Amino acid sequence: MMSALRLILVAVVVAYLTIVLFMYVQQRSLQYLPARAGIPPGDVGLDGVVEERLVTADGETIVLWSAMARRGQPTILFFHGNAGELADRAHRMAYYREQGFGAVFVSYRGFGASTGTPTEQGLLADATAAYDSLIARGIPAHEIALVGESLGTGVAVQLAASRPVAAVALEAPFTAAVDVGAGRYWWLPVRLLMKDQFRSRDHIASVRVPLLIQHGDQDRIVPVAQGHDLFAMANDPKQLVIIDGAGHDIISDAGVWEREVGFFRRVMHVPQDVPPG
Q1: Is the pTM higher than 0.90?
Q2: Phi first, then psi: what are they for 21, rounded to 5°?
Q3: Interatomic CA distance for residues 116 and 121, integer angstroms
Q4: From start to end of the chain, where are the E strands?
């Protein structure tokens, strides 16, 4: 009987360790879900949006969708989430342009037509390269606002902690990607094994510009408690908006984008844009 129990225990341990090894090896394929079609902006109805290619410090070539701001309006540097590609965010780009804002959307390495494979350090290198390109083209830091959705909030927070910007807006942010993973896979040693942890909680104290956080109270992907916790760690001035009955799909909600535009105009002292006519 004891021998049979030992065999069962050994089988359970071996099965568990096999699962742990599989998850460790495959973790980035679970964390990043890129589309690779590389659809250009003109194919999704975005006239006046330029597709640019930018070489990063480590030699990858990333794609940017870029549109100039109207006079007196800021430029948004936008970081998307862990799935899809820029073409999935065409309505957001169109909205920013309608408001007169400039916008630069970053296609991370391994997403769309960008080369390479996504990693945390790689995405941060992509973000830094995009930011530096804005400065190089003469857009001053006080006219640059950052927007991050979901995974992109981890990119935005770390960039804002290391580069001067005017303001930051985060949609469905986490305290850390590893906190999300540890909650979802509570039966795995996620905190020991996760490579790309995106610890926003370690960097948010270095962000010293106006901050807006928006989160749905029914978010099943990034728990709203993490939005509350990150907000509590952040410096003033800051604003938290919890959207009743909403889930993670707030990132596709035009009302969320509208609130961000109003926030940027207020804290950056930007006049209401008058469309050309």
Answers
A1: yes
A2: -65, -45
A3: 12
A4: 33-34, 50-55, 61-67, 75-79, 83-84, 102-107, 144-149, 167-171, 211-216, 238-243
Q: Three-class SS of residue 24?
A: helix
Q: What is the pLDDT of residues 174-214, one digit of tens each?
A: 999 999 999 999 999 999 999 999 999 999 999 999 999 99
Reading the block at residue 72, the tokens are: 């007196």
Question: Is residue 239 a contact partner of residue 260, using CB atoms and an 8 Å limit?
Answer: no
Q: Smallest Cα–Cα separation from 201: which of 221, 179, 220?
A: 179
Helix axis angle, 151-162 to 120-136, nearest 10°: 50
62: helix, coil or strand? strand
Rounded distance between C-alpha atoms, residue 97 and residue 215, angstroms: 24
Neighbours of 218 (CB within 10 A): 14
Question: What is the tens place of the pLDDT at every residue in 34-65?
Answer: 999 999 999 999 999 999 999 999 999 999 99
At 182 the three-state DSSP class reads helix
Rounded to whole angstroms, the Cα distance separating 206 from 144 reads 17
SS3 77: strand
The two structure tokens encoding residue 12: 């359970």
Q: What is the pLDDT of residues 212-223, one digit of tens each?
A: 999 999 999 999
- What is the model's pLDDT at position 275? 59
Q: Are 38 and 207 in contact, with CB atoms under 8 Å apart? A: no
